[in-house]
Amino acid sequence: MSRGGAYFSRLQATLNRVVENLREKGIHERHLAFGGEGPPPARRPSVPTDARSEFLANRAMGDWAERMLSAALARALPQWKVVQYGGTHSMAAGDPGFKTHYLAGLEATRRFGKRPDLLLFPSNTSVEADLSEREHKDTQPLLKEAVASIEVRSSKFEALTYIAVRTGQRHAGKFSGRQTPSFTVKVEDLVIVYRWLELHRLPQSYCQVFFDSVFAVNFLDIFATIARGSGFTLETPEKSQQKATIMIPITSGTQIGRATAIPTFAAQHRTTELGRHDAYVVPQGGGFELDAEATRTVLLADA
Description:
single chain; Trna Endonuclease, Chain: A, domain 1; 7-stranded mixed sheet; 3-stranded antiparallel sheet; 37% helix; globular
């Protein structure tokens, strides 16, 4: 069996328990239909018509996290080439052409699954640095040469500071709530990530980029945690539009990097067609140093 086939077999082995545990927690059956294309929508999907400051700020954070992680990966693991695969377009709701682009993205995700943000290839692979605008059929041959994939998450916290403060509060006998930040996985994303892995059999990890550190967990371990029925909570945070979200403490994963510099912030704004000004801040600069061996172990799901 190929390495990718073995990876997916390990994922499949936990699937029944994942479904059972999520069903027991009240998750709707439409989010538990793993494998194959998603069903066509019963009605035409609604399309966002406006992007406000919070969305623009969150996208800027996500873009920064991807840039910083890509650069750190390239330095730590020169035997691999980092390629952008998830969307990088600057189009926002309300812009000309957004509706067509948005609906095409939904259809591609329904059929082929959720594209990871980054792909890793052997450094001698002849591949473009950015495949984000290439259609699925065009990237299929290239994906067979990839070694790993990454979903990047950003956070407004310094994780190590957060953990240190909570630890001090606990030792002082103070109630301190959540002890660590979390990996956040939307329940609705499980099916579409699984679909992408079903097609490509390529190890995938979630990398959470904080201002002071980077933590990572392989999707295999996310599934194994859900299958155990413990080690996570199910919440509906406001920042996730009240969508059911699996929260796994970052200490269940691996710290793979520390910041070498904290970013500064600059104000930007966007003017809508109707003349509304949305102001938001954008992180600038910063940097990370990764532990090459720890990173490789997580990304390849090596024991």
